[in-house]
């Protein structure tokens, strides 16, 4: 997919104030620091589009961007920051789960996972919850440039194996890097295919 335009639309703290669900929507989510903002910027080739390295405790926002006037890219607040307060965490739970359950134009959630690590419970639990809710998702392993391909492949295989406890069919995955941009075109191609069908 050629990105002709990528524009910020709005930031929201309330699900009832989101833009009208008139375009297909794709949401990106993961642990804080997983590389979500960097990946969104690499994918859209627009450096400052998503704000990188947000501090924990900052207002949690659902950010909408419109791509090629054709689909929404949604940057969801990261989960699992150790330093965040209990209240922040509870707010996140309520807000994001409500969005994910209710957003009628949501086509797919891209769950970002740091390819350097062994499977983390918080990521597995989140995928499991998406599965239980019947929300379509795919896995995006980030920061591939930070270690060998062999190591990334091992961690991906571990993660997929861990999911087999809950899922008969494991969703597709992408191995990406915001530095080298590998994998970014594959994600866009997948979005294109879903949009066409
Ligand atoms: P977010 O909190 O998930 O939005 O994470 P950021 O995009 O802000 O990235 C967190 C940190 O990881 C920053 O220091 C980024 O420069 C770094 N980072 C993100 N993606 C990559 C990547 O693909 N490769 C490398 N080497 N560093 C990355």
Automatic annotation (TrEMBL):
Keyword Magnesium in the entry? The reply is: yes
The family note in this entry says: Belongs to the TRAFAC class TrmE-Era-EngA-EngB-Septin-like GTPase superfamily. EngB GTPase family.
Query: What role does it play?
Result: Necessary for normal cell division and for the maintenance of normal septation.
Extract the GO molecular function terms from the UniProt entry: GTP binding; metal ion binding
Stored NCBIfam families: GTPase_YsxC
Lineage top rank: taxon: Bacteria
Requisite cofactors: Mg(2+)
Query: Mind telling me what this protein is named?
Result: Probable GTP-binding protein EngB
What gene name is listed for this protein? Answer: engB
Keywords, A to Z? Cell cycle, Cell division, GTP-binding, Magnesium, Metal-binding, Nucleotide-binding, Septation
GO biological process, alphabetically ordered: division septum assembly
SUPFAM superfamilies (UniProt xref): P-loop containing nucleoside triphosphate hydrolases
Source species: Sphingobacterium psychroaquaticum
Asked if the Swiss-Prot or TrEMBL record annotates the protein with the keyword Nucleotidyltransferase, the reply is: no
């Amino acid at each position: 997919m050629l990105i002709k335009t990528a524009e910020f639309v709005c930031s929201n703290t309330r699900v009832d104030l989101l833009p009208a669900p008139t375009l297909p929507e794709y949401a990106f989510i993961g642990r804080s620091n997983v590389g979500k903002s960097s990946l969104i910027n690499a994918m859209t080739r627009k450096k400052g589009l998503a704000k990188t390295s947000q501090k924990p405790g900052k207002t949690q926002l659902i950010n909408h961007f419109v791509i090629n006037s054709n689909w929404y890219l949604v940057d969801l607040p990261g989960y699992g920051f150790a330093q965040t307060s209990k209240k922040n965490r509870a707010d996140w739970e309520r807000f994001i789960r409500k969005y994910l359950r209710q957003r009628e134009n949501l086509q797919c959630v891209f769950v970002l996972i740091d390819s350097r690590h062994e499977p983390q419970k918080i990521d597995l639990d989140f995928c499991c919850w998406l599965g239980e809710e019947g929300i379509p998702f795919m896995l995006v392993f980030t920061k591939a440039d930070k270690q060998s391909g062999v190591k990334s492949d091992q961690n991906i295989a571990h993660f997929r194996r861990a999911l087999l406890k809950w899922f008969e069919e494991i969703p597709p995955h992408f191995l990406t890097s915001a530095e080298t941009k590998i994998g970014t075109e594959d994600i866009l191609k997948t979005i294109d295919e879903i949009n066409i069908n």
